[in-house]
Amino acid sequence: MDEKYKSFLIQQLEEELTNASNINPGIIAAKIENIGFSCLICGKCCRRAFGDNRVLLIPQEIQVILDHTTLEAHEVATPATSGESYNDLIDTDGRIHTFGWILPRKSNGDCNFIENAKTSNKCKIYDVRPMLCRTYPFYMKDMELHVSECEGLGHKILPEESLKIALDVVNRYITEIEDTIALYKKFEGFVSGPENIKTTSDHTDKNDRVIHIVHDSKGTHEITR
Ligand code: SF4
């Protein structure tokens, strides 16, 4: 990413941030009340019932979970790979570059923090769960309220509950824009390897592990998994 393009993206985000800061949560609350929502604790959003269940995390959310649990960093966050082709995200040393973090998932794709499906759909970190989980199924994009798939839509919701969700949704929107601006400001770029270069697990790391370089709003982190 050249510096000129990076400046352009930051400027766009700063304009969006100004607009987002002027959103009236009452208007968002009225929309949520009109849509209707009550969480049925079905756990589908924590599994792959609706497809992609990745939960993106920003560094301050990771820190909150670490501060309130006995979990270690690698148990809370993993590099935000899509699981698909890495293409030009592999550098000349075979390291995979990613942007940000996600909650770890079990081998079956369920969120690591949901209890056993047969016994409970409870979240083990519910009180400190990330903003995405706190606001699901609602989110803001391009200044508009959007709704993800959810079994609880259409159920009656009280005005005060709608407002509480709206405040969280708007706060999440603003926080994520701020975090992305900080990420772009820290990002120094990297040189992609040639098309046929393989990941570290294929040719350098004798323990068959992959080296990830994670770029986030705090800087750059090398993670071996
Ligand atoms: S937010 Fe929706 S999908 Fe997720 S547990 Fe509640 S009702 Fe189910």
Please provide a written account of the structure.
With 225 residues, the chain is an alpha+beta fold. It has one domain. It has helices at residues 3-21, 25-35, 59-68, 73-76, 131-135, 159-186, 200-203, and strands at residues 56-57, 78-79, 96-99, 101-102, 138-141, 144-147, 211-216, 219-224. It is globular and about 55 Å long. The chain binds iron/sulfur cluster. The site of iron/sulfur cluster has 12 residues, from loops.
Present the secondary structure layout.
Blueprint: H1 3-21, H2 25-35, E1 56-57, H3 59-68, H4 73-76, E2 78-79, E3 96-99, E4 101-102, H5 131-135, E5 138-141, E6 144-147, H6 159-186, H7 200-203, E7 211-216, E8 219-224
Parallel strand pairs: 3-7
Antiparallel strand pairs: 1-4, 2-4, 5-6, 7-8
Helix pairs in contact: 1-6, 2-6
The chain binds iron/sulfur cluster.
Describe the oligomeric state of these chains in a short phrase: single chain
Question: What distance lies between the first and last C-alpha atoms, to the nearest angstrom?
Answer: 26 Å
Q: What is the 3D form?
A: globular
What integer is the average pLDDT? 90
Biggest sheet, open or closed, and with what strands and sense?
3 strands, antiparallel
Bound compounds, each kind once, are: iron/sulfur cluster
Number of strands: 8
**H-E string:** HHEHHEEEHEEHHEE
Secondary structural class:
alpha+beta
* Radius of gyration computed on alpha carbons: 19 Å
Helix percent band: 25-40%
- What is the number of helical segments per DSSP (H or I, 4+ residues)? 7
The total number of structural domains is 1
Which strand-content bin applies to the residues?
5-15%
Strand order of the largest sheet: 1-4-2
- Low-pLDDT parts are none
